[in-house]
């Protein structure tokens, strides 16, 4: 049975029913800080998991498979020197990615860290445009200037892709303030790794979001490691979702390898942010199947640990579940795989065939508005060549 740290108070009624795979923590009794707004708004039972249609489940499986094949191709392309710079993969997080994205509307905003290829795909950006960005091509989502860590597409409302650990968290709080100020009903979702919860900006952002009732869902993607450091080595409170209590923010931990459980927990969080303008802290737990980035052989993991990871693979688990439930046979799965692999092959070919960006556009996206007297320092510029 899941553990709870909720205090049964008037402001935070005990949950009567909890979504599958979740552990919850609610705000403790709050003095009347924002008056009636806070009264009775801190609890709320999570919706029961609906029975899923075979179509929905196969659809989720397909999306997870797409992310898996995309990331495998990215790793290969990196070793072929087609991708430069840093490159971090979502291998092991596929169920988390798909579950979280299924809870968002197209108009909702998303901020992530540098481990974001799958989220870009989940936000509806084509595999071609994401792969082209990894290859540094002008057809990429960030016109080839961002690379793997800086995917950005304002139209899809993916507002990055950040390489600075925790850099995205205050920006997400700021975006939620903008939504709130304009009176919109969009929600901001902000992802980060477990290691990020020790960064000062994480706490500052949660504090302000709690204080000002911002419509933002913070999601800690807990893969057990910040590079090679375990959560237990770096966090005084390793049950990270409990950090929400310090900001009187409802928080839940969910099994990140269960796509439906993630989606349901995320829906609860997102709807709470949308309907009540309350922030939420969601923690998902999933394995990081490979190293921190594609160049990390993860030598800090024992042979036994690496072996155990195979059993934790969410994609293999879902394939087995669908087969056992008579929803997707082995042959059907192979066909799906061939289809998805062809899609990724096409994305890689598109990236390969795309041109590099023009050098003259190097500084075009540095500032939102023109900077008077800016020294552009392009190759033909005397300042650059002198
Ligand atoms: C401010 C800052 N400090 C250190 C780094 C170096 N660094 C890059 S990734 C990383 C680990 C972050 O781990 P976590 O937040 O758990 O995310 P994950 O990589 O597991 O997704 C560190 C320390 C950085 N990029 N930014």
UniProtKB/TrEMBL annotation:
Signal peptide: none
Cofactor(s) this protein requires: thiamine diphosphate
Stretches with biased composition (Low complexity): 1-14, 21-48
Stretches the record annotates as Disordered: 1-48
CDD domains per record: TPP_E1_PDC_ADC_BCADC
Dehydrogenase E1 component domain span: 63-359
UniProt key word ATP-binding: no
Keyword Cytoplasm: no
Catalytic activity: N(6)-[(R)-lipoyl]-L-lysyl-[protein] + pyruvate + H(+) = N(6)-[(R)-S(8)-acetyldihydrolipoyl]-L-lysyl-[protein] + CO2
Enzyme Commission number(s): 1.2.4.1
InterPro entries membership: DH_E1, PDH_E1_Alpha_Subunit, Pyrv_DH_E1_asu_subgrp-y, THDP-binding
Alphabetically ordered keywords of this record: Oxidoreductase, Pyruvate, Thiamine pyrophosphate
The protein's role, per its UniProt record: The pyruvate dehydrogenase complex catalyzes the overall conversion of pyruvate to acetyl-CoA and CO(2).
Subunit details: Heterodimer of an alpha and a beta chain.
Protein name as catalogued: Pyruvate dehydrogenase E1 component subunit alpha
Gene name in the database record: pdhA
């Amino acid at each position: 049975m899941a553990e709870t740290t909720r205090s049964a108070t008037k402001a935070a009624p005990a949950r009567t029913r909890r979504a599958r795979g979740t552990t919850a923590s609610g705000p403790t009794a709050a003095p009347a800080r924002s008056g009636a707004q806070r009264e009775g708004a801190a609890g709320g039972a999570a919706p029961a998991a609906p029975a899923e249609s075979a179509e929905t489940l196969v659809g989720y499986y397909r999306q997870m498979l797409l992310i898996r094949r995309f990331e495998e191709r990215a790793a290969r392309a990196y070793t072929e020197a087609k991708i430069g710079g840093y490159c971090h993969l979502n291998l092991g997080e596929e169920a988390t990615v798909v579950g979280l994205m299924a809870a968002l509307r197209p108009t909702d905003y998303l901020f992530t860290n540098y481990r974001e290829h799958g989220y870009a795909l989940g936000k509806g950006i084509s595999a071609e445009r994401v792969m082209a960005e990894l290859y540094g091509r002008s057809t990429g989502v960030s016109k080839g200037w961002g690379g793997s860590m800086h995917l950005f597409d304002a139209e899809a409302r993916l507002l990055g892709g950040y390489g600075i650990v925790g850099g995205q968290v205050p920006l997400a709080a700021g975006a939620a303030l903008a939504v709130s100020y304009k009176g919109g009903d969009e929600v901001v979702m902000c992802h980060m790794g477990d290691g990020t919860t020790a960064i000062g900006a994480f706490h500052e952002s949660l504090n302000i979001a709690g204080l000002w009732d911002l419509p933002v869902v913070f999601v800690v993607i807990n893969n057990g490691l910040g590079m090679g450091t375990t959560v237990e080595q770096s966090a005084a409170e390793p049950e990270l979702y409990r950090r929400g209590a310090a900001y009187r923010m409802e928080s839940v931990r969910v099994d990140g390898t269960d796509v439906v459980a993630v989606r349901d927990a995320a829906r609860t969080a997102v709807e709470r942010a949308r309907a009540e303008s309350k922030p939420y802290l969601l923690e998902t737990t999933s394995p990081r199947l490979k190293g921190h980035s594609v160049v990390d052989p993860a030598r800090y993991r024992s042979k036994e640990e690496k072996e155990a990871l195979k059993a934790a693979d969410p994609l293999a688990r879902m394939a087995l579940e669908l087969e056992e439930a008579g929803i997707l046979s082995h042959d059907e799965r192979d066909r799906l795989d061939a289809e998805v692999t062809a899609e990724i092959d096409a994305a890689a070919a598109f990236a390969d065939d795309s041109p590099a960006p023009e050098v003259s556009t190097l500084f075009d996206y540095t500032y939102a508005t023109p900077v008077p007297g800016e020294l552009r320092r392009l190759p033909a510029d005397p300042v650059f060549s002198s």
